[in-house]
Amino acid sequence: MNENTFEYNNEEEAEMAQLHSIHMHMNAVAEVQKKLAKQAEQPSAEFCEECEEPIPEARRLLIPGVMLCVDCKEYHERKKV
Questions:
Q1: What is the model's pTM?
Q2: Where are the domains of the chain?
């Protein structure tokens, strides 16, 4: 048996586990939406907070409240993993 495979006693138990997983994912999406809404309340930075390079206008318009350039944002995302 694969370590990522679970055995359930019945269909109801399997369905409850699936619903729990969906609920957890919905909560995660809601948290991201809250963070994006809060970020959008502030003006976008013209220069990256980390490396001080200019943030292109297209990025500033696409992501309201953006504070990092693409390279620094990708670095932070990789660091989280």
A1: 0.56
A2: 1-41, 42-81
